[in-house]
Amino acid sequence: EAGVAQSPRYKIIEKRQSVAFWCNPISGHATLYWYQQILGQGPKLLIQFQNNGVVDDSQLPKDRFSAERLKGVDSTLKIQPAKLEDSAVYLCASSFSGAQGQPQHFGDGTRLSIL
Amino acid sequence: AQSVSQHNHHVILSEAASLELGCNYSYGGTVNLFWYVQYPGQHLQLLLKYFSGDPLVKGIKGFEAEFIKSKFSFNLRKPSVQWSDTAEYFCAGWDTGRRALTFGSGTRLQVQP
After folding, report:
1. Which of chain B's residues have a Cβ under 8 Å away from the Cβ of A45?
2. Which of the 8 DSSP states describes residue A103?
3. Residue B99 belongs to a domain with what CATH number?
4. How many CB atoms sit inside 10 A of residue A61's CB?
5. Could you tell me which residues of chain B have a Cβ less than 8 Å from any Cβ in chain A?
6. A33 and B46 in contact by Cβ < 8 A?
7. How large is the average pLDDT for residues B70-88?
8. Would you kindly state where each structural domain of chain A is located, as residue ranges?
9. Which option is the CATH number for A5-98: 3.20.20.150, 2.60.40.10, 2.40.50.140, 3.40.50.300?
């Protein structure tokens, strides 16, 4: 089966600019996650979708970050305006239904560098 | 909320050496634990998982982990590492409240030929 697709792989922007990341989960997977992985740390959950609804966005800095999954399939994560501390790898993952125990499948991530 | 800690940040081993990577968790309900691996340039992949039953869990590529409830630990082991095991290893726990994974900070393993 095709894996989780993310684009772009790399992005370099200046602070205060905006950026968007795209994710296409595995076909048929209802649950989609966005994680932020800062260098030297483990992935941290930003937002979780179940189909096109938000399950948890408690760790999403909503003053600058937004995410949507309008049709319950692919998703975009946006940062506007970017800050230096947003430099990280942004990972997208999906699972079949989000139930406990189901494996999460990860994409290759987007590495964001803020100058 | 569950938290996961990994105290070994960087481990260097020679080929054929035995491996044990530490993982400790804080109890937050039902304990479901995972080990993920990230090989250079690749995405995170599931190595193994524990839900219940036999505390010794076997995963892919000869890895195993033991859940020790009294020590709040879920250490990853491999009797003989290979150069191809060079990767970053992440321990994770299922946060039942958030219905998502909580990751440790990762351990970078470097295996020298």
Report:
1. 98, 100-102
2. P
3. 2.60.40.10
4. 14
5. 4, 6, 9, 30, 32, 42-46, 49, 51, 90, 92, 94, 96, 98-106
6. no
7. 96
8. 5-98
9. 2.60.40.10
Distance (Å, whole) CA A111 – CA B44: 14
Cα separation, B76 vs B50, in Å, equals 12
Give the tokens for residue A33: 């996650």
Tell me if B106 and A91 make a contact (CB, 8 A cut-off).
Answer: no
Lowest model confidence (mean pLDDT) among B26-30, B36-40, B73-77, B106-110: B26-30
Please give the DSSP secondary-structure letter assigned to residue B62: G
Total domains present in chain B: 1
- Contact present, A106 and A57 (Cβ < 8 Å): no
B75 neighbors B7 (Cβ within 8 angstroms): no
Contacts of B54 (CB under 8 A, 6+ apart): none
Q: Number of A to B CB contacts under 8 A, please give it.
A: 57
Instruction: Write the pLDDT tens digit of every residue in B31-42.
Output: 899 999 999 989
Q: B45 vs A56: CB contact, 8 Å cut-off?
A: no
Q: Which of A42, A45, A55 is facing B90, going by the closest CB pair?
A: A42
